[in-house]
Amino acid sequence: MKCEIIQDLLPSYIEKLTSLHSNEEIEKHLQTCESCLQSYHEMTATANLNVPIVDK
Q1: How far apart are CA 49 and CA 34, in angstroms?
Q2: pLDDT tens digits, residue range 33-46?
Q3: Using CA atoms, how far apart are residues 4 and 1, in angstroms rounded to an integer?
Q4: Where are the domains of the chain?
Q5: Integer angstrom CA distances of residue 43 from 11, 24, 56
Q6: How big is the CA angle at 29 (ends 10 and 20), to the nearest 5 degrees?
């Protein structure tokens, strides 16, 4: 898969909303692409903050 597709799928992948086939393709890509792996780590770090969103 191309990086653009992986970048689009990462939020859904992190939330466990992607298919088994997509998961396999994403994981294979992350093993070989440092840029997408960096994005994945940044997204998971942000997702784990558990900071409530306050509307103003």
Answers
A1: 23
A2: 999 999 999 999 88
A3: 8
A4: 3-47
A5: 7, 19, 25
A6: 65
Specify whether the CB–CB gap between 9 and 26 falls below 8 A: yes
Query: What parts of the chain have a pLDDT lower than 70?
Result: 48-56
Output the furthest CA–CA distance in the chain (Å, rounded).
42
51 Rama class: left (phi>0) / alpha (psi -120 to 50) / beta: beta
What pLDDT score does 56 carry?
61
CA 43 to CA 41: how far, in whole Å?
5
Predicted pLDDT at 49: 64
Q: What is the spatial distance between Cα 13 and Cα 29, in angstroms, rounded to a whole number?
A: 13
